[in-house]
Amino acid sequence: MSFRKKTIKFGQTFGTPTTPTPTPKAPSPKAPKIVRTITPTVTTGVKVTPKPTSTRGVLPQSAAGIAVQEKFKQQLQNNPIVKAATEALRNLHQISKTYNFQRFATPTEKDLHERKIKEENQKIQDVEHKLIEIELAANVSQIINTLESGEQVYPAWFENNIAWVKTGQITSQAFLDSYYHLSNQGIIHAPIIEPIIEEPIIEEPIIELPELLPEAIAEPQIDDSINTNMVTQQVINFNIVNGRAIGSIRFVATENFNPYYYGKNIINIVQFKTPNGVNILPYVKQNNLRFTETERDEVINFDEDMKGNTRATVESFVWEWIDKPAGAFSNKYTIEISETETAKPLSTGIMGAGVGGAIGILILLGFIADSRRKK
Question: Is this prediction's pTM over 0.85?
Answer without folding.
Answer: no
